[in-house]
Automatic annotation (TrEMBL):
The lineage of its organism: Bacteria, Bacillati, Actinomycetota, Actinomycetes, Mycobacteriales. This is HNH endonuclease. It holds the Pfam family HNH. SMART domains: HNHc. InterPro entries: DUF222 (IPR003870), HNH (IPR002711), HNH_nuc (IPR003615). Residues 354-406 form the HNH nuclease domain. One of its GO terms (molecular function) is endonuclease activity. Residues 235-260 are annotated as: Disordered. Keywords: Endonuclease, Hydrolase, Nuclease. It comes from the Bacteria. Belongs to the Rv1128c/1148c/1588c/1702c/1945/3466 family.
Length: 457
């Protein structure tokens, strides 16, 4: 057995070496460089389509084969206990440690686990005929149907056959959903334990994926009761809010729902009764701030980032950093040039309870003209940023809901405390009339809208 494993590992190594050689530019390798040469001078390939296509077909097969093999070896590693000995919390973590991207790591693990349930598909996969995405779709389809319909060996084999004959992963997903409905057992009304699908929390699923562009995509499949609670929580927060000039809320229903969801999450994060992370800290947001001066003195060639990052979702622009540091019980981690954390601590210029009360009495909710969201929804914004010497004081702070706080940080709107010691808002420059005076608008608290700064009393 050990001999076979060693031979397998040797062949894999040799194959990787051959590919590396082929990709190495001439001069950097001793004997290879063929592929690199072709890429540098495609004209030398001539119009030998057959040869080019044969190379592509072969490599596509190798791609399928290596992902299939990796999914199988990942399953072997799990059963052999390799992952536990490495003290990693999941098989996906083990693959990620090896440099496999998270989405692929999850696919590989799912296919490895489901391989025994789909022997027919795997026999095609073992000759390189099945892309890992397709095998994964079938694996997911099996688990989807299995959760909803009791399957014996025969119907499982039938299911795998039906799913495997689909052309694309999307088709597999749709077929699995159709079969789950077609095959769903009749609910036995006399069985007190029978749970209708709509009400079965065992089927609940939520995925949370941050893409390459830094946006996070959430999908949620939940039972009727949890769905009802979600709608109850979101509904009052989804109401349209008119613009300062009285025009209707420009946000679509789905934008308002997304804003409402974000509001609920912030309320939750602001609460005290939630599980803490290490050290009893309750961070709203983890911001990783690199030290501006990278390793200039050491002359280290290593690329080091000057862009701040959020803990889960990655790099963000300066305007978002400004919003985060403006007011958040935020956990900030400062990185040194070697990306080692130097200082982990809470920001210390938070608004005190007394100041917060005074702001609530003055602004009575989001101060942005026409908004009026309640005080419990608001952040205290520093008109002059704390980092630029602005005080955490009543004459430098204003309550803004998150939507309008974002507007202030990310667009041309400005807010200042007027001589009446109330907030005033200055709209962005009109690009058609760049010289026109930007009339300030009163805060929301005075209710009536006016352009007359002295009208406040
Ligand atoms: Zn702010
Ligand atoms: Zn607002």
């Amino acid at each position: 057995m050990a001999g076979i494993d060693a031979a397998f590992a040797d062949v894999v190594d040799q194959f990787a070496d051959v590919l590396t050689e082929a990709l190495c530019p001439p001069g950097e390798s001793t004997s290879g460089g063929e592929l690199a040469r072709l890429c540098a001078a495609p004209s030398t390939v001539g119009s030998d389509d057959d040869r080019i296509l044969a190379m592509m077909v072969g490599l596509a097969r190798v791609l399928n084969l290596s992902t299939t093999a990796l999914s199988q070896v990942a399953e072997v590693a799990e059963r052999a206990g390799t992952r536990r000995r490495k003290r990693l919390k999941s098989p996906v973590e083990l693959l990620k440690q090896l440099g496999v991207v998270p989405a692929l790591a999850q696919r590989l693990v799912r296919v490895g686990q489901a391989a025994r349930q789909m022997p027919g598909l795997m026999s095609r996969a073992r000759v390189g005929g099945v892309p890992i995405e397709q095998a994964d779709a079938v694996a997911r389809g099996i688990s989807f149907v299995q959760k909803r319909v009791p399957l014996d060996d025969e119907s499982l084999a039938d299911l795998v056959r039906r799913l495997s004959s689909q052309a694309t992963p999307k088709d597999v997903d749709n077929r699995a959903r159709e079969l789950a409905i077609e095959w769903a057992p009749e609910i036995d009304e006399t069985d007190p334990d029978a749970v209708p699908v709509a009400e079965n929390p065992d089927l609940n699923e939520m995925t949370l994926v941050t893409g390459q562009d830094g946006r996070t995509i959430v999908s949620l499949d939940t039972d009727a009761l949890s769905g009802e609670e979600l709608s109850q929580a979101l509904d009052p927060l989804c109401k349209p809010i008119p613009q300062p000039d009285g025009t209707p809320d420009p946000r679509s229903a789905s934008q308002r729902r997304a804003d409402a969801h974000a509001q609920i999450i912030r309320d939750y994060l602001a609460g005290r009764d939630r599980p803490t992370v290490s050290g009893g800290v309750l961070p709203h947001v983890t911001l990783i701030v690199p030290i501006a001066q990278a390793s200039a003195e050491t002359g280290a060639a290593q690329e080091s980032s000057r862009v701040a990052s959020l803990g889960f979702t990655g790099p963000v622009s300066a305007s978002t950093v400004g919003l985060v540091v403006c007011e958040a019980a935020m956990r900030r981690v400062v990185m040194d040039a070697d990306s080692a954390p130097m200082d982990v601590g809470r920001e210390h210029r938070l608004v005190t309870a007394g100041l917060r009360k005074a702001l609530e009495a003055r602004d009575r909710g989001c101060a942005f003209p026409g908004c009026g969201r309640p005080v419990s929804w608001t952040d205290a914004h520093h008109c002059t940023p704390w980092s630029e010497g602005g005080d955490t004081a009543i004459d430098n702070c204003v309550l803004l809901c998150r939507m309008h706080h974002t507007v202030i940080h990310q667009t041309g709107w400005e807010v200042f405390i007027g001589h009446d010691r109330h907030p005033w808002f200055r709209p962005p420059l009109d690009p058609d009339h760049p010289k026109r005076f930007r009339e300030p608008i009163r805060s929301n608290a005075r209710r009536t809208m006016t352009l007359e700064p002295t009208a406040a009393a």
